[in-house]
Amino acid sequence: MATLVGSAREIEAAPAKATGYWTGVWRRLRRDPVAIGAAIVILLIVLMAAFAEYIAPADPYRGVSLRRLRPIGTPGYPLGSDELGRDMLSRLIYGARLSLFMGVTPVFIAFFLGSSIGIFAGYVGGRLNTVIMRTIDVFYAFPSVLLAVALSGALGAGFGNALLSLTVVFIPPIARVAEAVTTQVRSRDYVEAARASGAGALAIIRAHVLGNVLGPIFVYATSLISVSMILASGLSFLGLGTRPPEPEWGLMLNTLRTAIYVQPWVAALPGTMIFVTSISFNLLSDGLRSAMDVKQ
Amino acid sequence: MTSLGKVLCGLALTTALVTAAAAQEKTLRIGMTAADIPRTLGQPDQGFEGNRFTGIPIYDGLTQWDLSKEKEPSGVIPGAATEWKADDADKTKWVFKLRPGVKFHDGSSLNADAIVWNVQKVLDKAAPHFDPSQVGVTASRMPTLRTARKIDDMTVELTTSEPDAFLPINLTNLFIASPAHWDAKLKAVPASVTDPAERSKQAWAAFAADPSGSGPFRVTRFVPRERLELAKFPEYWDEKRRPKIDKVVLLPLPEANARTAALLSGQVDWIEAPAPDAVPQIKSRGFVLYQNAQPHVWPWQLSFAEGSPWLDKRVRHAANLCVNRAELKELLGGMMAEATGTYEPGHPWHGNPKFQIKYDPAAAKKLMQEAGHSAAKPLKVKVQTSASGSGQMQPIPMNEYMQQALKECFFDVELDVIEWNTLFTNWRHGAKDQSARGANAINVTYAAMDPFFGMVRFTSTKTFPPVSNNWGYFGNDEFDKLIADARTAFEAKARDAALAKLHARIVEEAPFVWVAHDVGPRAMSTKVKGVVQPQSWFIDLATMSME
Amino acid sequence: MLSYLARRFVYTVPILIGVSLVCFGLVHIAPGDPLVSVLPPDASADLQKVMLAIYGFDRPYAEQFAKWIWRALNGDLGSSIATGRPVTDEVIKAVGNTLRLAVVATFIGFLLGSLFGFVAGYFRDTFVDKLASALSVLGVSVPHYWLGMVLVIIFAAQLGWLPPTGAGPGGSSDWEWDWAHIRHMVLPAITMSVIPMGIVARTVRALVADILNQEFIVGLRAKGLTDVGVLLHVIKNAAPTALAVMGLQLGYLLGGSILIETVFSWPGTGNLLNAAIFQRDLPLLQGTILVLALFFVFLNLAVDVLQTALDPRIQRA
Asked: Which ipTM did the prediction report?
């Protein structure tokens, strides 16, 4: 989970796009069975989250404590029951909602805020750039886990606070990538030319910067989703994330951990879900990266 | 044999030798639930686990708890004092006679000067050895004690702010540290440190690393946050409590799974609070589980602030009748006692409440219907709790169980889980404070061995927030009168009778939903012998032995 | 080069100031009572006021911050509220313990990661590549605290081969590099090494593949350079970046060890942080965060400088 910032510095801008670039990306991606497989798994999990009401066989909040910790394959409990006798399958299905949400939202928000900050700083350059980027550097100076834990520790446990801390953690690396790429693009001849010919800042950003910059940042951001999921589950594990009785995989892992002596397989299920989702996001991100030919 | 083989063989041999030496020198290794070693300088932190492991074994109090009986509630018996009495004319003055011949681990004598010094350390801001860090845990546990005065070498007079019959019980919390040893530590502080407050602070830090009390064990090695080693003190005054174990090692292991693994792998001989779900495994591997009801309550404390749904007594009674405590007990693997009040029948303070707490869903539903609620029109309540915390047992599963159970009786329970320290702080802010975030009940567990902590602070109008923990603003003239009666009953029997009356009225008015008492479960290796688990938060290490 | 170094050092100063401000700010936005660890909830409001004054929490934030920084510059981070012990001593000891674990974990992770990455990159797009890449993705995708718990159950609780907790038979203070101590380190170090393993493997794979694709390698091969020669060339070119990644990983492990240290009760910075958060021990919390962040800043600086010195290709204006 400490991956995130390491790779930020290694990303460089892709060369200016030729026509049919996205068609090419799609063609290359289609030929990558691993990436497609990962995408299908993610799609399934998203569908599972979206239609949880229709798929889940039972109420994820309701349990019979006398029928707690049943093994996998118990009639009525296909994947066993948890420490309060709630149906594991249903909780895992509903759990996809919060877990995906906790994984994707911080990255999503950080993607918008971070790239806006970065593109702005990179575009204006000069002293303002220095001020913005040094401020970003201050947050970048904290190891990600430390910052997330310290922030949620300070703000107190809770879903919203965990989201906030994760978002704060992801903004600096994304902003740095965006700034680096924008600065690079800005100095290219055709952008200089456009400037000289009096094109407005917004028009230049839209025409030249966004097209070149968003791709690499997007690839980078997809690789952060798995980090975010693992980090979020880690916060829940420490008691700083989601609160019961919400079904969320990290929290389920936390509350089931003492059951690992009684029903090790049931207790392992939420961990497996986190693992499968996070590995799928990683593989998809890898596929995207090579399809979009973003240099690592 | 290869050189690697030789090394490995040598290591195995060393390990074997070390193990053999450990077997001869009888060592008891304990895994505590605290995240850190409780403070060793006299007044421990970490709640009563602190008193259990770094208070009682190392220090004496003027009075102490009788930990020798399993079957009856643990009572207060003489400690460093042999007898005490409140002055007949002025009930705020108490005379304590000290036990002759009690020595500190450093060899100095426990006398009247030492008692005065130890009262000053937390109550006299002008004293050179006043230590603010020890004030909090001590002053609030002896709320009325003010000063101490030496009468002669073996007699002290203690003064309280108002007549208070509970003082001898409170004094079990004042642990007597050696003034001579502290003076030596103060002298050792470098002369370059000139600020007296800073010198005192450093002396206390040094004292904590190498403390001296008069208890049955003395500290031999202290590795902060990792381990505390105690050795027996063979000159302890009470022959019955001269330790048979040579050495005790205390390890902080806050994570329940880590504790269980430490026990199962033979790293420790005893763990506090094993995870309930691991108990079958622990038992099947030949370990013994000890438990006994503790003077501890796991409740929902209800709000009587304006607009609270609990203002209706029928609702309070219904909630108390709707919880199937037997089922909850099963959920916890048997590791709780069912609560039908703060004190159970058989306890001298139980009394005869007219309202009987039990599981009676029919009666509960009827009461709720009378109060105008139904499945279609449930009563919304909100409870603030934490995910963990000292004495909270298994707060999440237990509260989720409550949520489900009360649903049957037309309650719609919302849980507000917050961080333990925040919850603890909110407890003093009260239900009307914004920190309650609209909650009308709070789930903070409490110790009840002292009548002030078990009853008075929750039912007196003088303990409304922010003064103390009457979070829900429960109280009226009747209860203030009952409390005053108990506080001024200086004869033990009369005091117990007055307290029983108070308790009966509390149960009848039900300002709590009483759910469980903790049973202080601990799992031990069969090598630990002579274990007596009293009905107390504490346990006596001194009377145990190791095979 | 020299001017780059000078600039890099100058840049560090405002970051250090910013970091200390953030540390202080983080800790003080915290809701809850700063004295909760020494003051029970039943303490009276008066007592609370007196105690706040004794500890100096009643002063304005600016004053508290200035005092803290001034003392910190002199190596004094104040005393822990809960234990009364000097924060500096506690943090230094904890950093030592975590560093010991993190260095071993990084080393294991680096060795395995380089191996997997190298094999994958060298045999790019073959079955071996897929296998090695899968292992490295596994490393960055597994919730490692969960892995730690599973290892404890198997190797400590069930098999009894290794101790589940602690940093040595007598605590961490008498650490020696003998088996009695090292066996305490095996499980946490392996669990921890999974992260750098995955990241190093991914980096090395990309580097190796990239270098092998470069035209001059193709040229060298055409000129009859042996496989060993190519290999040496690849290693020489990949090493600086791989080492830099390793250095940074060490920093992340130092700051991110909290979950693993919680699972294994390892008396390091993560454990300290956990205790500080849950006891709301402000001096300890801000001290620990500050030291870890400073460590990370300087590590970053060192890695940058070393990388610049090692790799002549990097041109930093």
From this structure: 0.80
